């Protein structure tokens, strides 16, 4: 091992312990997870077998016939001993707007929400759509669903009405929970009005029965009689205790829609037993949590993404820790907001994305240097490979070269971290997510042959060889798609869709998606979704959407659009097309470049040569490679000139 650089821990016994424990955990995953399930979770009824099924048939099940409740494990089990400890420490859009909610208070309110949902007809097995701002109630509604056995489908509050309608239609969700408005960076977001638009669409007609509306700003909003319910007063009128529904380990805890290679988002499904165990264990390990729950832990993601589900809500509460929730943006009221919060709340563990680090780094070191950041112990990063410059700034300027940086690789489908360095145990390398988590058997495959690449210094695609409890079990209503996307590309393995390199020390370096999924500011966006939004516009006859390197966002979105005959290109048309994408998906998917063109580089067999488009958008037109198979090679120079003019 040549890992003796300055990021190595002082002793290597911790590293040896990790290596030995990891070897054991994958030598017999059932023994490993079976023991963890018993020690880490409270069960109403024990399970008959630890694991059954496999990747080949997509019939994986964990803790078979066990009965438990995730909300019980998040709240009730901590009441004795930690009832008065803060469960949710919330900071609103204005730095002065803070709330500390204890485990006992949280349980009472979750029970009231549970009873309110039940009183309105929500039943075990129902799907509840949640479209809410980052107010404490978003976590509480998720927990209430878990308590009564309904499963939630949280939709990030940046999604458009069209996107909400698609998801409501796909899940058949009869129930929607929202708020009057959201508040972010001093701006108001009309969440109820957006829900109204979604519910009025054909796709949702006859689907939604009730829409429960929390007051965040107390603005008067449209309330449709018979459908819309003012939720705060209904909740307040409920009894603050509600029994937990005993759930089967393999019952659904939630679904979460995520982008894939086709235009239709997938409803990734997670289960009660396996997900809860995996969320708890990875949370504890990756952030080296103190057993007594005394850490103040802050993940500044949004609850609407998987990071928020696992590492704002479930992971921290399953561990009895204090979880910080943040409603605003890192730039409001100024770019020192994160560091101001670290000082004021004495945050010990801070978890964010490379894109946020890069955007704050631009302002220099003055802001972080103004604040006392000595409470910090661990810094986490997630969402995309972190570039070494951003890593160093995070480590040196934020962490004062005194904190471990945990680079956590995972995805919506994995439920929790699958590759990450254990702080203080696994030596760090800036830009590498390092080594697999316990119970995760990673391999690098040759993408062409599907054969495992042995040894170090190899490059290929990442795959996982054995089931783990946190893995998604299906795509809601479309098991075939689940098999096609994850299980069939490399039979016998789970395929996450990422390329990777294993270096001379066996460390994994993620090289990015190998499918048509973009990673824009850590948000997954399918190129097909953007393309279908563009071609829905009458001015566009064909669209090819590709990603290109972007300094802050990681990847930017470039849209090459062939215009309908007779349509002239103009700035106003480009603006209209950007709006079309915002309307179909949401503002976070706004294209960076719209490149109208008379034609696209096609092979003689009629396939768009995306490789060429990618190189042009990246400004690497000197490295186009062989373009001799193009039907019309002259189109290439035209596009190069257009992109240069735009950038
Ligand atoms: C990428 C977010 C490198 C990867 C939790 C993955 C990363 C996709 C990392 C999942 C990381 C996430 N290093 N790449 N630490 N974390 N990714 O589902 O391409 O929104 O497949 O989950 O983000 O995105 P998702």
UniProtKB/TrEMBL annotation:
Residues 18-74 form the Acetyl-coenzyme A synthetase N-terminal domain. It is an enzyme of class 6 (ligase). It holds the Pfam family ACAS_N. It catalyses: acetate + ATP + CoA = acetyl-CoA + AMP + diphosphate. Residues 529-607 form the AMP-binding enzyme C-terminal domain. Keywords: ATP-binding, Ligase, Nucleotide-binding. SUPFAM superfamilies: Acetyl-CoA synthetase-like. It comes from the Eukaryota. Gene3D superfamilies: 3.30.300.30, N-terminal domain of ligase-like. Its EC number is 6.2.1.1. The keyword Transmembrane helix does not apply. Residues 76-468 form the AMP-dependent synthetase/ligase domain. InterPro entries: Ac_CoA_lig, ACAS_N, AMP-bd_C, AMP-bd_C_sf, AMP-binding_CS, AMP-dep_synth/lig_dom, ANL_N_sf. Belongs to the ATP-dependent AMP-binding enzyme family. This is Acetyl-coenzyme A synthetase. It comes from Tetraparma gracilis.
């Amino acid at each position: 091992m040549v890992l003796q650089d300055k990021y190595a821990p002082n002793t290597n016994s911790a590293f040896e312990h990790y290596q030995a424990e990891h070897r054991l955990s994958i030598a017999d995953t059932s023994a490993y997870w079976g023991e963890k399930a018993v020690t880490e979770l409270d069960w109403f009824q024990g399970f008959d077998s630890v694991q059954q099924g496999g990747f080949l048939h997509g019939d994986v099940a964990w803790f078979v016939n066990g009965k438990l409740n995730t909300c019980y494990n998040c709240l009730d089990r901590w009441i004795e001993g930690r009832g008065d400890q803060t469960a949710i420490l919330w900071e609103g859009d204005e730095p002065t707007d803070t709330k500390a909610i204890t485990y006992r208070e949280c349980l009472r309110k979750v029970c009231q929400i549970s009873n309110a949902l039940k009183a309105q007809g929500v039943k075990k097995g129902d799907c509840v759509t949640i479209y809410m701002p980052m107010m404490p109630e978003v976590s509480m509604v998720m927990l209430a669903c878990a308590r009564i056995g309904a499963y939630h489908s949280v939709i990030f509050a940046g999604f458009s009405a069209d996107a909400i309608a698609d998801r409501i239609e796909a899940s058949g969700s009869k129930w929607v929970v929202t708020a009057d408005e959201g508040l972010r960076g001093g701006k108001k977001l009309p969440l109820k009005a957006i829900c109204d638009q979604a519910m009025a669409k054909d796709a949702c007609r006859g689907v939604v029965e009730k829409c429960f509306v929390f007051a965040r700003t107390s603005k008067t909003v449209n309330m449709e009689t018979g459908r819309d319910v003012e939720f705060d007063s209904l909740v307040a009128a409920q009894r603050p205790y509600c029994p937990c529904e005993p759930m089967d380990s393999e019952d659904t805890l939630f679904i979460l829609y995520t982008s894939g290679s086709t235009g239709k988002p997938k409803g990734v499904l997670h289960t009660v037993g396996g997900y809860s165990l995996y969320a708890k264990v990875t949370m504890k390990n990756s952030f080296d949590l103190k057993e007594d729950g005394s850490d103040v832990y802050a993940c500044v993601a949004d609850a609407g993404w998987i990071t928020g589900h696992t590492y704002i809500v479930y992971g921290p509460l399953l561990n009895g820790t204090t979880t910080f929730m943040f409603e605003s943006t890192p730039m409001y009221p100024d770019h020192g907001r994160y560091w101001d919060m670290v000082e004021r709340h004495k945050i010990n563990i801070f978890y964010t994305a490379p894109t946020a680090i890069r955007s704050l780094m631009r302002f220099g070191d003055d802001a972080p240097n103004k604040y006392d950041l000595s409470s910090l112990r661990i810094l986490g990063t997630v969402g995309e490979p972190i570039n070494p410059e951003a890593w160093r700034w995070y480590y040196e300027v934020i962490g004062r070269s005194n904190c471990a940086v945990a680079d956590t690789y995972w995805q919506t489908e994995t439920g929790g971290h699958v590759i990450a360095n254990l702080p203080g145990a696994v030596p760090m390398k800036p830009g590498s997510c390092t080594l697999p988590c316990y119970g995760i058997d990673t391999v690098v495959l040759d993408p062409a042959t599907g054969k495992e690449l042995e040894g170090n210094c190899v490059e290929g695609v990442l795959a996982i060889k054995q089931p783990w409890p946190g893995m998604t079990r299906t795509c809601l209503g479309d098991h075939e798609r689940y098999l096609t996307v994850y299980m069939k590309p490399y039979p016998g393995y789970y395929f996450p869709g990422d390329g990777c390199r294993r270096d001379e020390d066996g460390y994994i370096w993620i090289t990015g998606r190998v499918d048509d999924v973009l990673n824009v500011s850590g948000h997954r966006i399918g190129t097909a979704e953007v393309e279908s939004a563009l071609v829905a516009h009458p001015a566009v006859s064909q669209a090819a959407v590709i990603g290109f390197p972007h300094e802050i966002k990681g990847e930017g979105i470039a849209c090459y659009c062939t215009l309908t005959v007779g349509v002239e290109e103009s700035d106003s048309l480009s603006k209209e097309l950007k709006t079309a994408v915002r309307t179909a998906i949401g503002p976070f998917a706004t294209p960076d470049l719209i490149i109208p063109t008379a034609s696209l580089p096609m092979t003689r067999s009629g396939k768009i040569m995306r490789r060429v488009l990618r190189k042009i958008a990246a400004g690497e037109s000197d490295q186009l490679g062989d373009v001799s198979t193009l039907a019309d090679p002259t189109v290439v120079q035209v596009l190069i000139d257009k992109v240069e003019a735009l950038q």
